[in-house]
Amino acid sequence: MSMRAEKTALVTGASSGIGAAFARLLAAEGYTPVLVARRTDRLTQVANEIRERTGTRCEVLTADLTDPKAPEWVVSQANEIVGGIDVLVNNAGLCRNETFAEAPWERAAGEIQLMVTAPTELIHRVLPHMRKRGWGRIVNISSVSALGPPGASLLYTGVKSYLLHTSQALDMELKPQGINLTALCPGQTRTEFHDVMGVREIADKMPGFMWQDADTVAAAGWKAVSKGKPVCIPGAMNGVMAYLTRPMTVNAAYSFGRKFNPFKDTAA
């Protein structure tokens, strides 16, 4: 990684939860965070907290990533403000408590845009800067649900499975260029997620040992991508669940896929 005055990080869904935790962590690590979410007031609150706690510069971009035009705008603005992105955290997401058949297509399309198209496009648009520098770190927030059997809740399980497998595939391609990708697969995490889904009452009945806090999850994800691990399942309980519900471990599956990777001659 070549030296320059400023190291930068773009974090989506940064107004709360795991996204805000990543923003705080990266600021403490010396990165200039660029925070992206729909809620300007919450983003500003997080940014002010980071500035007061660390004295670090922190930028805010208000954007709705369900808008197909948003990813290009976000990266363009970020490049103009901080001169390129060194770390990307694709955290923005949602999960609605409704069935696919009953949901209006516009909501299903928005979920696909937000959690499939937008993170994929953001990766593609930050890569030129990372490849030029020969260094980059990308974390895609998947879910432990991607490691188990399919579930309900509209397209959530399928979307998170896409992020899991895409992260591994792109890590194979880009690691030789100094760019690590990690699929972070948290389980039950104490955030606003369950309130948005409308299942807080159900979630609160789950035993305490199954839960993690957002700061712990973010720290595990950052440690994993720093070490070049393509998949991170934070928490012993989540690891056990993944093992019991998956015929092949994620590391074995990654090794198997890499063995037959058509780019293997360039892989590290």
From TrEMBL:
<dbReference type="Pfam" id="PF00106">
    <property type="entry name" value="adh_short"/>
</dbReference>
<protein>
    <submittedName>
        <fullName>Dehydrogenase</fullName>
    </submittedName>
</protein>
<comment type="similarity">
    <text>Belongs to the short-chain dehydrogenases/reductases (SDR) family.</text>
</comment>
<dbReference type="InterPro" id="IPR057326">
    <property type="entry name" value="KR_dom"/>
</dbReference>
<dbReference type="InterPro" id="IPR002347">
    <property type="entry name" value="SDR_fam"/>
</dbReference>
<feature type="domain" description="Ketoreductase">
    <location>
        <begin position="7"/>
        <end position="187"/>
    </location>
</feature>
<dbReference type="InterPro" id="IPR036291">
    <property type="entry name" value="NAD(P)-bd_dom_sf"/>
</dbReference>
<keyword id="KW-0560">Oxidoreductase</keyword>
